[in-house]
Amino acid sequence: MGKYCFGIDVGGTTVKCGLFTTEGEAVEKWEIPTRTEENGKNILPDVAASINEKVKEKHLDPSQIEGVGIGVPGPVSEEGEVPVAVNLHWGRVHIVKEMEAMTGLKVKAGNDANVAALGELWKGGGVGYHNMILVTLGTGVGGGIIVNDKIIAGSHGAAGEIGHAHVDDSIKDPCNCGNCGCLEQVASATGIVRLAKEELAAWKRDTLLKNRPLSAKAVFDSVKEGDELSIRIAERFGRYLGKALAVYACVTDPEVFVIGGGVSKAGPILLTFIEKYYQEYAFPTCRQAAFALATLGNDAGIYGAAKMVL
Amino acid sequence: MGKYCFGIDVGGTTVKCGLFTTEGEAVEKWEIPTRTEENGKNILPDVAASINEKVKEKHLDPSQIEGVGIGVPGPVSEEGEVPVAVNLHWGRVHIVKEMEAMTGLKVKAGNDANVAALGELWKGGGVGYHNMILVTLGTGVGGGIIVNDKIIAGSHGAAGEIGHAHVDDSIKDPCNCGNCGCLEQVASATGIVRLAKEELAAWKRDTLLKNRPLSAKAVFDSVKEGDELSIRIAERFGRYLGKALAVYACVTDPEVFVIGGGVSKAGPILLTFIEKYYQEYAFPTCRQAAFALATLGNDAGIYGAAKMVL
């Protein structure tokens, strides 16, 4: 086995790159811009050039390099082909074939959210576990399902799309996916603001939220200061998410739920609201599941990408 | 590879046994009683004796036999150990170790519901697919999750316990699992009777159900005769189940849902009620999933057990 590997996380504006030891130590991290013009035809050549340059700079021999893992924002087949990736302006692209030709290295590709889950399992909040569900609470709600250390991609690349589970019949305005009542509409950063607005409209007493620009961060900051309304909002959020995670647990029965994304910056207090309701709704055997915060932040993608080739 | 394999399905009263070719043709099927007395200490020796006898009777050489697969009603570890199996009166039993010693053959063990799913994938309603969710609608609601042709057992043996997903806040009486509002309480044979009773109590007009002993079969028989109330009950059932399956699809994104168990004897009409609501709630990419009826009935377990060793 080689001593090094590359982890690449292709985003809509920048490509994050990492050179790692096969033990998972980051030797170097850098970024290059994502050139999406002309159907993103330069993206992979730019990445390949950057890798080849780094190999030269570090005086590495190809035999020392285990391979290159790449995460992209879109569905990726087992063979490493993307049918379409909107954010990269891509139509059908065979990442593995193209990148192997341009670098001479072994290449694996995966969906970025799934790859990030693998990163958290390897070197983040999921260390020591083998069965995990990663929940990313950002603008939307994303996820990644790991079973026996492997990503579950799904037969249409939609495994782990847990933000689009239906959780509320009373929501009548559509989610980004077109359905109504998705988890994402009540448990993402945007969803928490929705809950806050609803609660604020009916609230007669004083609250710290009246003096703060409304955001998920403002809600959890106020929770920490004991604000009654904010705690009420956090409880609603926790019930939605905890109940949904209890349903997912009936499917893959994970050892751990790792919670990441911008909302998770609220820290351990966030987990208490989720876990409380998870315990209320989970099948008894599944109640043993642990809860942890993601720790790699925006680096989860490059770690997970690197892990893919090991 | 050997030419034959055994598939064993250990139930609470009888053990179903099958000798198969490795292509999946049943050479012979038979049953022996399950002797649960004295903590079920005779169960495995009885099974081993029956296998050894069959090997002799058929003049098989051990080299011709690929192995023995066994499904049991309880959680089974990857190594083939059962911590406890209530219906067999078992405490901790290491199935693989004990059976290998008594037969001299390679042995694999798994949970019976999961094993049945593998059987339906191999030779039943899921033939040709690699990613499947089996839904068993019997007295309860069971399930089996298959990803890339493999059973997902879960980290506590509870993967596929989809009957215990929380689906209704308004149900206040407890499920067998102790929680309230489980899918099993509204989508099993018993659950359908619950829905029927609720609807009947409020129904003022005529209905075929008033003249029939109430059962899931009576409901779907009456649906086929155009009975308005029965259709109403089937729609409620379909919404509960279709909505729940749409949520599970966000987790593993299967190619096909295979519906089995006693309720599935209603035939293809059952699927129309489930699929209609699945389509309403599923994440767009997951709407491509197919629906099929299970075809192996009570033989799914022996087929799946045999497949485990191949």
From TrEMBL, chains A, B:
Q: Which InterPro entries match?
A: ATPase_NBD (IPR043129), ROK (IPR000600), ROK_cs (IPR049874), ROK_glcA (IPR004654)
- Is Transmembrane a UniProt keyword of this protein? no
- GO molecular function per UniProt: ATP binding; glucokinase activity
Q: Name one Pfam family in it.
A: ROK
Q: Which family does it belong to?
A: Belongs to the ROK (NagC/XylR) family.
User: Sorted alphabetically, which PANTHER family does this protein's record hold?
Assistant: BIFUNCTIONAL UDP-N-ACETYLGLUCOSAMINE 2-EPIMERASE_N-ACETYLMANNOSAMINE KINASE, ROK (REPRESSOR, ORF, KINASE) FAMILY
This protein is called what?
Answer: Glucokinase
